[in-house]
Structures are given as structure tokens and as C-alpha cells.
Amino acid sequence: MSTSAATRGRAVALMISAATLWSTAGVVTRHLSPELLAEGRFEITFWRSLFAAVFVAGYLVVVRRVGLRPVLATGWPGVLSGAMWAVMFVCFMLALTLTTVARTLLVMSVGPLVTALLAWAVMRSPLPGRTWGAIAAATVGMVWMFSGKGNAPEGQHVLGMLIAFAVPVAGAINFVTLHKAGARVDLVPAVFLGGAFSAALMLPFATPFQANLRDVVMLGGLGFFQLGLPCMLLVVAARQLSAPALALLALLEVVLGPLWAWLGAGEVPAARTLAGGALILAALILNEVAALRERGVARRG
Fold first, then answer.
1. What is the model's pLDDT at position 240?
2. Sequence-ordered list of residues with C-beta below 8 angstroms from that of 49, at least 6 positions apart, any chain
3. Cα gap 37→93, rounded to integer Å
4. For 94-153, what is each residue's pLDDT tens digit?
């Protein structure tokens, strides 16, 4: 395997790991205390974001031993990326407390299309036909997963889905920023900014605190391992992968989220959910296989 192929392979592996960690948010959230879920959505978002910021700060201080100086060095790309992380952190958790895991993830599934369009508009990045095909197939899979009677949203579910729509929009801006500026600026500290911005924004609405110790421990786990760590992995992967490729691989979260909710919270998926998820996985795998073949042909040529 060539160096470039191995490097891309590592980047893909990082994105798969990130999406897998992201996908645990729904099942863990469902095990928070009922009182907190009913009335503490801002507090939930606050604790999760705060712990994510603490995790990234700890990495910079303890592992890299550079303190928080790199935060200042990120410049405007870091501030923009941090702001988009904050929008994603806030809107995802608020949506999750207003509607179902499945509906939240369904709205987020438009991410690859929004990202592809934005990447083309900003960077004039041409997309190969295989990527457009994968996006189309994944979109069909998402519609298939969540179609059928009884799935029409109403009441607060509509509000939750509208809030969730901010996640793929902010994600698209973030992916393009990471891909465009990530080669010359270390944007791992931007994840810290995202957590800090989000926590500061939620704090006035989060008090008086009502989470018990068990809730705080669970939200700490989400902040560390479901948010801080995978977002850092994405930043590293963005140095090698295009913005649309990042968004497409991030769809694994949409596939795995309902699976963990089934195994860990008793939310049994319908047959169409399994079939649609299989179609999405097939689209992702075939896109990567086609990419490998194209690079092989290019090297031989």
C-alpha cells in the first residue's frame, strides 16, 4: 500500500471511530433521570459542553504540554470553527430532548448534501460521480429508515427537528473550514472553543442545577468520550479527507445511533430501519472501494 493510501486509510479509520463515539449520545441521554430530561435540557447541554472543553484543555496541557496558547494561534479559522462546534453541540442536545433519537438523526442526514454544495460554492471542489451516487443512495436509505405510518412529527417534535437542522448546516461550514484551513492551522483547540462557547451560552439557562451525581457522571462521560475525543479525531481526519467525504462518513452516526438505542434503551428498530441502514453502509463502503480503485489506476497510469 502506498503512503498516500495508508494515510487516507488512517483518516477514514479516525472518522469511523469518531462517528461510532458520536452515535452513543442518544442511548446515554435516555438513561438520564426523567426529571432532568423533562426540564433540564439546557443543563444537559451545559454539562456535556463543559466536560468536552475540559477534556480538550487537558489534552493540550497534559499530553501536548503546550497549555492553551494554541487556542490564540488558531485565528479567525479557530473562532469560526469553534462557533460552529458550539452551534452543533447546543442544537443537537436540545433537539434530542425535544424529539426522538431517530428524528434528530434523520434531519442530520442531510449533512453530506449540504456539505457537498457548500464545498462546491466556496472552494469550487468538483465531486466525483461516485460521491454523488453515495450521497443519493444514503439519502434514499435515510428516507427508507424513517418512513412509514406513525412517523409524521407533531408538536414539540417539529420544533426539535427544526433545531436539529442547524446541526448539518453548522457542520457543513465547519467541515469546509477544517478542510480549507486545517493544513496550515492546528484546529484541535477550536474544539475547546466550541465547548467553552456552548457552556457559556447555556449557563444562564441551566441554573438552578438539578442534575444528580449520577447524571453529572454520565454527562461527563458524554463530554469526554462522545464529544471531546471524536471531535478531535475529526479535526485530524480533515487534514486528509475532503469536506464531503467527512460528512459522508459521519453518516455512520445516523446508522449506529438507532442500533445502540435498540440494544441499550429498548427502542426496537423497524425492519425498514435495518434495511435503510444497510443501504447507507453499502453506499459508504462502495464509495471508499471505488476511491481506492481510482487511486490504483492513477498510480499505474
1. 87
2. 86, 89, 90, 194, 195, 196, 198, 199, 202, 223, 227
3. 11
4. 988 887 777 777 778 778 878 888 888 887 777 777 778 877 887 787 777 666 655 545
Q: Read out DSSP for 126-177?
A: ---HHHHHHHHHHHHHHHHHT-STT----THHHHHHHHHTHHHHHHHHHHHH
Residues ≥6 apart with Cβ < 8 Å to 114: 168, 169, 171, 172, 247
How many of the other CB atoms lie within 10 Å of CB of 212? Answer: 13
Are the C-beta atoms of 53 and 222 separated by less than 8 Å? no
Grid cell of 227 as nine digits:
464529544
Residue 180 corresponds to which cell in the numbers above? 480549507
- Predicted TM-score (pTM) of this structure: 0.83
- Any alpha helices (H) in the chain, and if so which ranges? 3-22, 25-29, 34-39, 41-58, 69-73, 75-98, 101-108, 111-123, 129-145, 156-164, 166-181, 188-206, 213-221, 229-237, 243-250, 252-265, 271-300
**Exposure string for 92-119, b = 16+ CB within 10 A, e = fewer:** bbbbbbbbbbbbbbbbbbbbbbbbbebb
Q: Is the pLDDT of residue 261 over 90?
A: no
Whole-angstrom Cα distance, residue 62 to residue 67? 8
Write out pLDDT tens, residues 18-28: 999 999 988 89
- Three cell numbers written together for 201: 451560552
**Distance between CA 33 and CA 47 in Å, rounded?**
14
Q: End-to-end CA distance of the chain, in Å?
A: 16
Count Cβ atoms within 10 A of the Cβ of residue 154 and give its class: 0-12 exposed, 13-18 middle, 19 or more buried: exposed
Whether the CB-CB separation of 260 and 30 falls below 8 Å is answered with: no
